[in-house]
What does this fold into?
Amino acid sequence: MEYLIRFLACPADHFFLLGPRGTGKTSWSQHHFTEALRIDLLDPATHRELVARPEKLSELAQGNRNRQQVVLDEVQKLPELLEVVHSLIEEKSGQQFVLTGSSARKLRRAGVNLLGGRALHVTLHPYMAAELGRRFDLEQALEQGMLPVVWGAKDPRATLAAYNGLYLREEVQMEGLVRDVGAFARFLEAMSFSHAAVLNLSNVARDCQVKRKTCEGYLEILEDLLLGFRLDVFSKRAQRELAAHPKFYFFDTGVFRANRPKGPLDAPEEIDGAALEGLVAQHLRAWCDYSGGNHSLYYWQTRSKVEVDFVIYGESGIYALEVKNSAKVRPNDLRPLKAFADDYPKCQRILIYRGTERFVRDGVLCLPTDEFLGALHPNKMPTICGYP
It folds into this structure.
């Protein structure tokens, strides 16, 4: 599969490019920096040499002053190099440093602040539907997710099945992040039942047979490896009592599917509904990161369990979005959005469903899922009046 233009804008200054493996960080950087000095820390020989002599990075950079960019791939494999990068930045040689990574854990713990705010942090997410254009297929996306490494594979199912093994082997086991890899694998499976749901860590700990404190540590690792994220409750100027616990999502619907077991007690519609909500979640998260205006993603739930799946809050406005895995829109489907609008009258309300018609009902824009996702571009959000 040839390279597809991504929505992530290219910063002009030094930056960390973070994102899970398979999101296309290397392809993105190769597309934007064709003449860069590239140092791949996943290459064993390169890694060994720089472990022994980190100062060689300085020698390479100084010996290639004609290269405008220096790209360090998977810099978390050797965070000690950040000290060298910091020194090179201070020299103001005119070279731009691009530091890619698939784990925020080691960078944060080993001194990412050594760069003293001199490098931006940007994130590359899985494909958005609009990046794929006509290639986007909703049913395919719900089954295999949106990872570029999966979409470009000859056998997407096998690639997705091997994805967890890659992380367990190369990130969790080799880096010594957990003592019991088997327990962490059970934790991944248990977390799949919490995907698109309010998180109850006590239940997860019981399901994977570990202590709650251990489960909390596992969740931190999962987030540090960028494989999952939590959504907090939107509580700005709250006018009623709200829920206290966050919701959880795997970063990609395909990864959720790969971890979610199926059996006689697992209703297909339950799994499909979680997959659909997760697909929308990952698109909205990417939209927030790729758009200007400091947008953040939340959910909203009252103590009485009235819930809106997603709330986006930023400089362009406030958006309340509900996702329904059904072909019809029923009156009850609109009630959470109405309750939210009672508290936040300025909000734009959108209901995303599995039907085929676009219409407005009771002030709510109702959109087919594929139409909504296909129309979602950075700084553009479908509304009743078009785009803000």
Q: What stands out?
A: Residues 129-375 form one domain. The chain has two domains: 15-123, 129-375. The chain has a mean pLDDT of 91.
